[in-house]
């Protein structure tokens, strides 16, 4: 795809946008693995802007730390996901889960002047330790100063203001933005931002940044593409985690229970706003082409190309196959909550952090990227 002598960053600012989806985000690693093989071993990343939400923010931040050597960054991220277990993300033993729920219950029986911790069914402190050990956040600024990275954005949801907040670290010319329901705040990205962005409501506790509590970035996110556009992206590669092929259901569907409703809401949170924002981008591109260049400049309109890639197969059949690999304590909690591995596989697909399931998703992402190689190669070209 590129010669070994062509090691400079691409002329156009290409952004990588990674959406959220819990364990499903392993699919994004497979796509990156395929793309990295199309470049020489020592080559800068084709992306100068990284934007991530929820689990996608973890992937984006890890890759942003290694923009000077794209293949190395992808290799490290792939190794991390391939060796991931549920216990590395949240407490998954009977003792750990009971202790966490006991602390949650006890804290809410205290006097009102004792601030109760944010509620979450699962204790994600293991994820905090993992991120502190595997991500060297100081590399982000080094990549920016070296000119390999233009910007990194991590989006979270502010529970107090109901606004979508994007914490970004990047080049000095990136302006702070403020809209009625979305704002951008210049920050030094760290573990707290990633924990906040990936805190799925009810499942994981909210994370405190400053004086506010933040949760999953997909909540309240009306315009997922906005951070990339605000940072000057001219092309955006979007790796979504909503399968192209919907899951087939029998003619007689069971009445939706708590778990099925939860899975439906999570799918809506992580996917629906993206499709709407893509339609809006398409309209803006048509408008930019229709008006004179001088008018387009006055209106700050510009052509932004977008390529959307999503899984070719649904996740639910994989969840049914690998559900038995999930720790017994987690399966027991799901049973108590009425979550069935066959009927409620959608919600389980977000929490199945086990190697066999994850590696299958990586392989799926790799194969989907190879199937669309010509489109991706053409899109990532700097010309």
TrEMBL record:
Keyword rRNA processing annotated: no
Source taxon at top rank: Bacteria
Positions of the PNPLA domain: 16-229
Single biological process term from Gene Ontology: lipid catabolic process
Active site: residue positions: 54 (nucleophile), 216 (proton acceptor)
Gene Ontology molecular functions: hydrolase activity
Signal sequence residues: none
KW Hydrolase (keyword) present: yes
Location of the motif GXSXG: 52-56
Swiss-Prot/TrEMBL keywords: Hydrolase, Lipid degradation, Lipid metabolism
Annotated protein name in UniProt: Patatin
Organism for this UniProt entry: Enterovibrio norvegicus FF-454
């Amino acid at each position: 795809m590129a010669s070994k002598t062509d090691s400079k960053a691409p002329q156009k600012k290409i952004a990588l946008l990674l959406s959220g989806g819990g364990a499903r985000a392993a699919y994004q690693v497979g796509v990156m693995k395929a793309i990295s093989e199309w470049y020489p071993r020592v080559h800068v990343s084709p992306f100068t802007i990284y934007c991530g939400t929820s689990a996608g923010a973890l992937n984006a931040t890890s890759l942003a730390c290694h923009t000077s050597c794209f293949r190395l960054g992808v290799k490290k991220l792939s190794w991390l996901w391939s060796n991931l277990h549920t216990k590395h993300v949240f407490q998954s033993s009977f003792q750990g889960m009971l202790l966490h729920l006991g602390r949650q219950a006890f804290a809410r029986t205290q006097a009102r002047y004792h601030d109760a911790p944010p509620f979450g069914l699962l204790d994600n402190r293991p994820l905090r330790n993992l991120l502190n050990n595997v991500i060297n956040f100081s590399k982000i600024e080094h990549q920016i100063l070296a000119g390999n990275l233009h910007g990194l954005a991590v989006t979270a949801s502010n529970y107090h203001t109901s606004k979508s907040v994007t914490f970004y670290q990047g080049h000095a010319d990136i302006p702070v933005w403020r809209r009625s329901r979305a704002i951008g705040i210049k920050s030094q990205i760290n573990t707290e931002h990633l924990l906040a962005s990936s805190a799925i409501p009810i499942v994981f506790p909210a994370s405190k940044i400053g004086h506010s509590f933040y949760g999953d970035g997909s909540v309240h996110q009306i315009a997922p593409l906005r951070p990339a556009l605000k940072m000057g992206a001219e092309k955006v590669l979007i790796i979504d985690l909503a399968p192209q092929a919907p899951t087939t259901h029998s003619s007689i569907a069971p009445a939706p229970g708590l778990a099925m409703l939860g899975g439906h809401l999570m799918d809506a949170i992580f996917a629906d706003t993206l499709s709407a924002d893509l339609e809006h981008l398409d309209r803006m591109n048509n408008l930019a082409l229709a008006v004179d260049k001088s008018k387009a400049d006055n209106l700050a309109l510009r052509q932004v190309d977008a390529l959307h890639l999503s899984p070719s197969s649904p996740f639910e059949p994989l969840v049914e196959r690998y559900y038995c690999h999930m720790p017994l304590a987690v399966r027991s909690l799901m049973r108590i909550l009425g979550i069935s591995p066959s009927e409620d596989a959608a919600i389980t697909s977000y929490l199945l952090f086990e190697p066999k399931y994850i590696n299958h998703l990586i392989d799926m992402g790799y194969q989907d990227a190879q199937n669309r190689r010509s489109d991706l190669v053409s899109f990532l070209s700097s010309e």
